[in-house]
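Why does residue order matter? Because the sequence determines the fold. Keep that principle in mind as you read this record.
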Amino acid sequence: MKIRKLIVALIVVSGIRSYGQQVLQDSILYNKNSFYYLDVKNYPKSDRSLPIGIFDSGIGGLTVLDAIVNYDKNNNETMQPGKDGIIDFEKEEFIYLADQANMPYGNYSAENKNELLKEHIIKDVQFMLGNKYYKSDHAIAPNKDKSHIKALVIACNTATAYGKESIEAFIKNAGLNIKVIGVIDAGVRGALEHLEKDENATIAVMATVGTVTSKGYVNTLNKQLKNLGYEGDVQVFQQGGLGIAEAVDEDTAYFNTTLNAPRESYKGPSINGNTKIDKTLMEIYNFDFSNNRMLCDTQNTDECQVLQINDAENYVRYHLVSLLEDIRKSKVTSPLKSIILGCTHYPYLSNEIKTVLNELYNYKEQDGSFRYQPYMMENIILVDPAQNTAKELFEHLKESDLFGQEGDIYNSKFYISVPNKNNPKIKIDETGDFTYDYKYGRIEGEIQEYIKVVPFSDKNISQDIYLRLENQLPFTFRLIKQFKSQD
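Structure:
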């Protein structure tokens, strides 16, 4: 017992598993009575007909899936580079999981819950490798007819940063040979494609707080710059986009359309919070106060003592100004050339990001000088890692001879996690979501079903999110509707 207690205190480094991870993995691999048990000895190997698994903490990863399902960079008959008007993954089927109940993953590090996050990630992988799901949130027993997978895409930057090594170690321990593709390496390659080998430049990464804290992008950029022979002076800035992904996923601790006044449960940037809104920069933020997009404690917005962001674009405004202020104060010698959208939710807001960047580029001080122009290119490149993720997946299937021959992309399946209301230990709020304190207060190593994974539908997400998917990801939306029609 003393040894066990000592292990609990260990932090996972270089593949060493914490006590909580060890308990979970033992439950998956060896405990036949566990809900999470996998019969890995009989797992189908090198089976071309299996789907490809993709998971994220929410709907953000659908932007990665959308890039994959629309990918046409190769001839489908010869497999050689060159688009042929036929999507490259036409005969592949996909299984998508949004772990919406446990999102946002990016906040676990701030709450000192990295090990709990890694458990969620391993459970995501267990779902992908397994055959269980619930037909609905009311179902008592799970269905057991879900397909296994032949490759795994981590469509989440935070999960890639904190969990990719753990996933690869787990799959190896399970005796499986399944490729794991993460979006961070893909994002870095995308950024470097826009640089000459001897070019001096400034690159920024906008990501969740968790991804920024992990330094996943910075470390990978530095590694790739060295390995690929880049000789220029490349400076890297990071901005933790607290609230952006949460607003896209409509997490009520950051975004709530029913409110017209500030609330105590708010977790985003504020005048008096840990992540501060700088009142001296209000003109530059240029927040939209209409329709309760900002929540103030007074009628006169110039006199706010409590100010809370309540709109996705306003979160974008806050974080882009914060990023440009850091770059300006650092007096970089090479202007900002590209921003890696280091969170799968951010491509939903590409137009808003471009609008705000244009405003900031043209912002003038009272003396007529440009505040940010010396430190930024006029047309900053937004790097979406999804395209390079699709490229890496294609190359893996080609090299491993795993491309499907008889599959149909319209047979793809979509799932989402919801709180397991049959578990008496969980705590949910009036909206039916986990309370913030419960979500981040759970203890690692407690093997229980916090969630149920159910078919993805408009019953599990808001109408606003559903419409956003329809407008911004039309092909993926058609696949979701096709899956829903079969339900």
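The CA atoms of residues 287 and 314 lie 6 Å apart.
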